[in-house]
Amino acid sequence: MKSFRWxxxxxxxxxxxxxxxxxxxxxxxxxxxxxxxxxxxxxAATGTPLDxxxxxxxxxxxxxxxxxxxxxxxxGRPDDPITMLYLDGDRLLLTHYCDAGNRPRxxxxxxxxxxxxxxxxxxxxxxxxxxxxxxxxxx
Length: 139
Description:
Strand 2 (54-62) and strand 3 form a beta hairpin. This protein has a seven-stranded antiparallel beta sheet with strand order 1-2-3-4-5-6-7, with helices on one face. The chain is elongated and about 45 Å long. It is α+β, with helices and mostly antiparallel strands. The termini are far apart. It has one domain (23-123). It is built from two helices and seven strands; from the N terminus they run ααβββββββ.
């Protein structure tokens, strides 16, 4: 009887460890949340009016830790594009509210490399026009 209780205990502990294991999406999202703050740097958007201008980026954790807001501002910009990152089950999703009126939605795809928590975003929509900035997946 003791061996049955011991075996049952081990089985239940094993199952609970699997149930509470973090997905790659959750690990990536938690890592991204550690970047919350304000950042400043010079744009390297070659061939655009923003090239060489100072840009300000803020990352803010919101909604009780369930979303990350990315906002980018800079001199000469009439408005700020905003990107929301969030989890949907075991998927890390992103919606970008673009100045051009586009709203690409992207889902992270896990890529196994030496670096932990590597994510790649790929777009699920096509830009409205080819003369505006577009977002593409990474190779």
